Amino acid sequence: MGSLAVNLFGKKLKNPVMNASGTLGYGVEVEPLWAVETMGAYVTKGLSAAPHHGNPTPRVWEERCGMLNSIGLQNVGVHRFFSHYFPFFVERRCPVIVNFFGFSEEEYLSCARSIEPHDLVVALEMNLSCPNIKKGGIGFGKEASTVHAIVRSVREVTKIPLIAKLTPEVKNIVEIARAAYEGGADGLTLINTMPAAVVDVKERRVSLKGGFSGPLLKPVALRAVHECSQAVPIPIIGVGGTATFVDPFAMPKIIAELGSWLDASGLADISAIVGAAHG
Amino acid sequence: MDDIPGKITGNDCVTGAYRRLTVGLTRPLGRVSPGQFVMVKVPDRDIFLRRPFSIYDSRGRALTIMYRVVGRGTDALSAAVRGTPLMVLGPLGRGFTPGKGNTPIVVAGGIGYAGVRMLLKRLGDRATLFFGVTGKDELRLADDLKDTRVLASTMDGSSGFAGDVVSLLGRYLDDYRGKRPEVFACGPSGMVKSLKALLEPGRIPCQVSVEERMACGMGLCFGCVVATRDEANPYKRVCKEGPVFSLWDLSL
After folding, report:
1. Which residues of chain B have pLDDT under 50?
2. Which of A202, A213, A262, B132 is the most exposed place for a label (fewest CB within 10 A)?
3. Residues of chain B with C-beta less than 8 angstroms from the C-beta of A213
4. What is the ipTM of this complex?
5. Contact B247, B195 (CB under 8 A)
């Protein structure tokens, strides 16, 4: 059987398949379903310097071509994650990508600073879709200059490889990708959910505003991956439109199918096709 | 834990929008505690999130749920005929835990009956059901209860007490003085709020089964939370820490 192993920032992952941040809780919830170390790496829920309560309900809504979520970044805080949940991944020898966020530059920095390098911590993944409360709530990820500045600041306070996770809600994602790269990002995750709303026609009101994910997102993400890959020479992790949220059992199936596909294609190594479609 | 494939053996209207679904599973759900739920993969290509339903009955490989048609998922489910394959995941969540030596009072509003029905079967003649519905036709939902005393209220006054079920319970609460009453409830949020107001003076122990829109049903997505009085971490997952909570822990 061909090898699904990939190298990411000098660490070997057994396959290139990971969850999108926030779709697999703190990881321990996966335990009754399948072994978390089946994945190349586990991506944490978005973590912040201080715990965050999140939004009132409704938080999720199914639409015909995907779903909206508005969890509001509920999390126990980065310190509690490392004291309480990280030992589980150490026990399982499961590599971890730590997704984190802030509502101000200080919050990003404080969070990034508090994460110690560890053999199993592959990278920090910066969620750039958050509103900057000091700039009237405009998203950090919206303007190239802001992205450049925040990535550079975070880059200076950690030795751990840094991934910028970009929002698709921008005029030109290639410019944003370039700004992140020039700010010092070691990789990109493309893309976050798209802003969306559900309207209750009967009550004449908006029932839920949130991020849209699901099958519709996949071609949107693929276009972002394709275009950004032409502009920056760093690894890109594609996210969106695969099935974890829909099917908690999808992950082991995806990994097994990827292995079968590799063999059927006569390829010895999955790394051989990384970037193959992007010329 | 994995999806259990099954086939619909019955999907019949009980009254109005209320239906009873029976499923023959390829293997048993296993040990179910009353108040637990299952996630059902509705047999419709356009419905991709599983839908949560209280376990109404589970015997060996036979599973029963009772549901009300309220949206796209239940609408699609109502159209599924006998013999249709579907997938069931469960049992999930934490159910009711009746205290030994307490006198159980069960309060259900409408389809909330489905959430307490297994508990009622388990408690038998020890429990009294206070059952609130809009009109007398809906009392048919509880027709299968043989051993339990049922006190009914209808909003339209067509049968039993005319008014809401919590007002009905209020008339009987004094009878339970000194009998260590313990309340188990499932119903709309308005019912739960007035229940809290009624029970507040004596702080009678009360467990409530909570409903919320769910996506995963397994604690992965944090989509189905309920606000609690835990100030450090107010939002608890209905699917994982619930669906049954102490009424006194909830922030209503």
Report:
1. none
2. A202
3. none
4. 0.92
5. yes
